[in-house]
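From the shared-data thread, chain only:
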Amino acid sequence: GSDPETVRELGAELLGRGWGDWCQDRSLAESWETARGADGDPTVVVNAHGTRADTLLSSSAPFAVLDGAAAVARAVDAERIVVYISEDDDHAVDQVETAVWGYPDPPAPMSVVTGPAVYRAAEPTMAIEAIEGNHRLEARLRPPGPDETGIHDRPTVVHTARTVAHLAAALDTGSPADSRLVTVTGDVAAPATVELPERARLAAALDAVDGAEEYKAACVGGRFGGLTDSLDIRVDPESLLGAGLGTEGVVELLGEDRCVVKFVGERAQFAADTNCGRCVPCREGTTQLAELLRDLYDGRYRRDGIEELIGVMERSSICTFGVDAGRPTRTAMTEFESEFHAHADGRCPAGSCPRKAEVSTT
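Structure, as tokens:
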């Protein structure tokens, strides 16, 4: 196995990948130090739940994922390694279980635990709730974070499969690769996942799919990504965040016939229907946001009120679900505001909304 000090040095250079990583867009090293200094023997969780890229890695390169997890376990002196996967990802579960059974000399016992096939179950503290066997998944208040008090009150390091696989590759080469996995989905013939240099533009990912020649908009950053009409943006997280977009590594294309207002309304309603209910800013904020978007169809567009509400959600929600839930709407109002005014005037530019449309998840 890799020398723990070497692993910790690389961890200082690597950033967590994906919203299921407790260290999303932050250095891994600080979380590791917190876990090492906390009371109790740490657990390492590989969060491979729900994201296409994490599921793909778990299915196609399970030993790389386990190599990275084993390296983290050595770095924090963990007593247990858990790979957490959605219960409906049968192939990934089978592949990882087979790899666990055949993994040589693991530094700690390895196991696979499945969680419910719902979006919020990938949030790091809700992943811990699922691993503990709790049926009601609610985000945990923080501080303390899971790296201090996690599974059964023991320190728990939570990284995505992408993060630990990237660590494993860095240990093989001696330095972290300057690259990111990007999944293109949406209005394309079939989704695809590609690896791009961070200096590349998001538009380069479109070469991997058919049907991406023309699009109205792209939702960049996963379920609650930001909307843009240009993919001339670098793949690195600093550039994406600077553009108001997400860093989840997903580009969802919307064709020319798609209605942006309907799209963000559906995302807001999804957030209202599927949040955990733990904190008021998310629980009430997502419901109010969906209602404000429905008001467009009654001729009322209250941009200031929508922006104020989203600001409260971003500042006050206890987990990333609520922080990000308003981003599709916020960015769409900036990039496609004419569509919002058109709907308030009783007209859908895409021709896909009835006069009294209902915002729904279907």
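The chain has three domains: 4-173, 179-254, 260-344.
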